[in-house]
């Protein structure tokens, strides 16, 4: 496998690895669902696709899955131009839509075996692969049950297994955590990291940004059918962020912040000793906490108010959608 490029910017990614899309556009009649999206995802990484409803995420994923042809732009997967030869690309791709869409009368195992046969596997190979994947997604006990009796979460796990039947090098997952219970969400995070560790290109679209914080290596933010930002999770962690500070005594907390010259605001209607501060880096956050403790403040909790990717979403996508150029300034205490 060629060396992975060092940037998430689409123009700097080699066209023989992962996914590279430039200037993608797609309309449905008079509705321009995707206007101009640049997107890149590298092998060995989980790339998050983030944006509000109606931003073009699902349309983009359908184009990446070769199920929709772009009206404009170029798309390469594994070095192949998708528009030129979609049939050559499809065996590389595992596609998990946001709803399962199955033959309800078939059992979970029969569905997977049927998918395997569609990919040209013989029956024995298809059955062995299906059994392995049912065990992977913890559905072995339900293998002989018709899919119509599966819960939403169980159907999501079956959908993931279905996407893996052809052992794809590229995984495209649309809201994979939807309907999963907390334990299954943890299992999913571990599986996604496992797939990336195997060298696969993993793309995940989700509204649960806290989940993406835990699993993603990079993120592409879209709004109104356009790419508005590419960012690694490391870059997200290093951006300016708000932190909540709680202590046993409100007066001591505010006095400690004031003595250290740290600007703060107090949450409206707060019922506990709490203040909000803004810091530029994690190192600065650690320094604020250290100085408060040295000042004798009994700190009980100190954590970001939102996750790193949510911070970017609010400062980039939300502002883009609302038409504001900058967030409203917070009131600072003195």
Automatic annotation (TrEMBL):
One protein family per Pfam: ABC_tran
Protein name: ABC-type multidrug transport system ATPase subunit
Gene source species: Zhihengliuella halotolerans
InterPro entries noted in UniProt: AAA+_ATPase, ABC_transporter-like_ATP-bd, P-loop_NTPase
Annotated SUPFAM superfamilies: P-loop containing nucleoside triphosphate hydrolases
Domain ABC transporter, chain residue ranges per copy: 19-249
Domain of life: Bacteria
Family label: Belongs to the ABC transporter superfamily.
Keywords: ATP-binding, Nucleotide-binding, Transport
GO MF term set: ATP binding; ATP hydrolysis activity
SMART domains per record: AAA
